[in-house]
Amino acid sequence: MKKRENIVILVILVLMLIAIIGVSYAAFSFSGIGNTPNTITTGSITMTYTESDNKISLNGALPTTDETGMVRLNPGEYFDFSVSSAITGEVNINYEISAKEVGAGTIDGSNIKLYLTRLTDDGEEQLMSPETYNEEITENIYTGRPSGEMSLYTSSMNSSESNNYRLRMYVDEGYNPQGDGGNLTFTVQINVYGRDRAIEPVSDVLLANIPEENQYDDGVDTFITGEDPDNYIWYSGKLWRAVSVNNEVKTVKLVTQWNISTINFSSGSSIFEESYVEEWLNDTSIDGFLYNLRDPERFIVMDAKWDATEDIRELGNITRPTGTTIVTDAVGLLNMYEYQTSYRGTDYTDGYLSNGLYWWSLTPFSPSQVCNIGDDGSACSNTASNYSRGIRPSVNLKSSVQVVDGNGTKNNPYRLEGDNDTDLSGTLLSSRYSGEYIRFGTGENNLYRIVSHENETGTKIVSAEPLKKNGTFITMDFGNDIIFSSTNTIGAFLNGEYLKNYVNSSYSEMIENNTTWYLGTVRNGDSYKLAKYMDENGETVTSSVTNTKVGLLRFGELMAGQFNEYSNNIEYWTLTPYSSFHVYNIYSKGGAFNGNSSSTRLYGIKPVLNLKSNVIITGGEGTKNNPFTLKLAN
């Protein structure tokens, strides 16, 4: 494939503070050298930049906390600069801000933290949480950043725009200065790289940039293989992995990196068609997965074929099935052949599709058992279909979908044309998509994700991970009463201490004061819909409800089964009863279990709340590294 990459011109206007300021035994010096304007013209693109040697030096500094280092505003304690571009034509600019250690510092970079924000009309927007200096071992071919530099931030521009940034640097509080003799020095140079790139189909970008040793062509599809290839894609608020490219029509099969929810596969049958899982994946109700995807008819194949043929062969012996059971759906699951092919040539525990969680495949093992993947990557082939496991939805991107940004890594996944919004300031949050990240609340518990728009006018959100206190997960019993309310143990905490100590008034006023929470009972083999509705038809809501300001997710709801990572997980409560003494909790390795509601069982807490219809976005991109920031519109 012909790669069309042209170095473009970034206007880098660096507003430098040249000073040495003593603060609490610490001194910072910022220096700039050179001021020569240059212009480069490539095709219809002309950009200018101010050539300079931009350095930030830290001299004689003592360790400090993140809380202090992130807010320093005295002269000499921060470094301001701007990046802008002038673009004509249908061109997308990928750019990246990076830092490179220069000179012979006397303190190791592992003890130095950098913190980057963007300056907005409302103050500072965090772009990168405080991170220790760490140089990338590979280059970024999409921005032009070489290896050996620390990546601070990547983004794109597709029209004339300018952004102002602020960088802080300080010694990590964990560093022990005793006996080092003082006079610590560390210097970095701030660089900005940019390239324009013609928009290209997802299939072409993947096959051109995945090494040949990580590709396997079985004559029908070309599979991506290996331990951790650069096949990450961000679409509709979720991180996906590209699994394969169809050789003929060039569609691309995706699967979510993490479990999205957890439900019973069926009432007892292992047949995918007409199972609860098939219904959940293709549910077009306001709570449904397909309904909450962004423009599905534009992005995904709505009549895709899913091979749900029974297969009892062990891993290592599976060849492409004969395809005797084909299901037509927009959304499906991976089968065992597709899972195994992803780690072809490696041990299954090292394959990139092994995510440390339990999740369903669509391959039957027997009339009542379904193959599912274990937390160690093995195939747990004897799981009864009336049990609960995690769901990793799979879709097929249309051949017309194109990449406009990213390099396929976890921290910079490929972004798709039409799903790569760059300026959402003033946009209603209620217009955004399930899975997108939000900055909400205070302290270490300020990252949330969109669940759905269940009440149609507002936005339901959930904490991205269970609540923590000083880095440790908070656990508690549900309460002797299995019916969630503002007075049982967990409900009283959420509607009392949580609102008081974890959400300040500026955020609390964004929350609807009274939300209806559905408390339908679900047992093994029951439909997920019974958590909200009277029956499996999903037409009449259950009469078992409660009304509070803050609640929990219910069994089978979007994001009920989701973890940010597979390590350091903790079980967390839902509000769905299983029996007179048990309430569902989400197992730390995927799946849902019926935890006793008494004080003998302690699980984590993921607060859920509905935000008002007039909450608007003030910044951010809705990703984990750059979540939306919010305010209440007048």
Itemize the secondary structure elements and their pairings.
Elements: E1 5-7, E2 11-15, E3 20-23, E4 26-42, E5 45-59, H1 66-69, E6 79-85, E7 92-101, E8 112-120, E9 123-132, E10 150-157, E11 161-171, E12 185-197, E13 200-201, H2 202-209, E14 215-217, E15 221-224, E16 232-235, E17 238-246, E18 252-256, E19 261-264, H3 276-281, H4 296-299, E20 304-307, E21 326-329, H5 336-341, E22 359-364, E23 369-373, E24 379-384, E25 388-391, E26 394-397, E27 402-405, E28 414-416, E29 437-439, E30 447-452, E31 459-463, E32 468-469, E33 472-473, H6 489-501, H7 505-508, E34 515-518, E35 545-548, E36 550-551, E37 572-577, E38 582-586, E39 592-596, E40 608-611, E41 615-619, E42 629-632
Parallel strand pairs: 16-28
Antiparallel strand pairs: 1-12, 2-6, 3-4, 4-5, 5-12, 6-11, 7-10, 7-12, 8-9, 8-11, 13-27, 14-15, 15-17, 16-17, 17-18, 18-26, 19-25, 20-21, 22-23, 23-24, 27-28, 29-30, 30-31, 31-40, 32-33, 34-35, 36-40, 37-38, 38-39, 41-42
Describe this structure in a few short sentences.
By secondary structure, this protein is mostly beta strands.
What is the alpha-carbon Rg in Å? 26 Å
Number of helices: 7
How many structurally independent domains?
3
Biggest sheet architecture: 9 strands, mixed
Query: Helical residue percent?
Result: under 10%
Beta fraction of the residues? 35-45%
- How many beta-strand runs? 42
Shape: globular
Rounded mean pLDDT is: 84
Uncertain stretches = 1-53
